[in-house]
Amino acid sequence: MIAQVIAGGGDRDEAADRLAAYLDDVRIGGIATNVPLVRRVLRDPVFRAGDYDTGYLPRFLERTDAASMIEEIEAAAGDDARGIGRDAIAIEGSDELRVLSPSTGIFYSAPSPAEPDFVEVGQRVGLDDILCQLEAFKIFSPLRLRDFNTPEDDLYGDCAYVVARINVSSGQQVNAGDLLLVVRPVD
Length: 187
Known about the structure:
Layout: H1 12-24, H2 35-43, H3 45-48, H4 56-63, H5 66-77, H6 86-89, E1 97-100, E2 105-108, E3 124-125, E4 132-136, E5 139-143, E6 161-166, E7 173-174, E8 179-185
Antiparallel strand pairs: 1-8, 2-4, 2-7, 3-6, 4-5, 6-8
């Protein structure tokens, strides 16, 4: 979390107007934030009418111009949001590649304490195999090699790998850019 902003007003609408106006002037660069989403929600007639429940966000995203919102988020995030280059993951003098944490969170090597680890050293993995889960704010995100491939940078290509090393323990806090695992292509 970068900041928490609280707005007040004589009623709910006034507070929403004040918060939306404040967020119009907020500029955060270099990272992806949810400011464009929050601004749109605050101005949404359904939200303003108080007609929302736990299904509000998916319905809101269906009726809003999500593509332009994503463009706005990416533009504010800058070039760093597109990811890292192949040079950043290659280990000099070897064919091994680093798997770096894409975000801050808690590293989990297994789906639950009673289940086996997603991967072990020496195990063969494909691009779609789950390597671990990262948890942030009680949201668990599985991490796969394919998640790092983008149209601009095909970091891990389209081949199989062997897990060479696992560098963090389950339950350990990691930050964006921390080394999670090392993989090497299968011959």
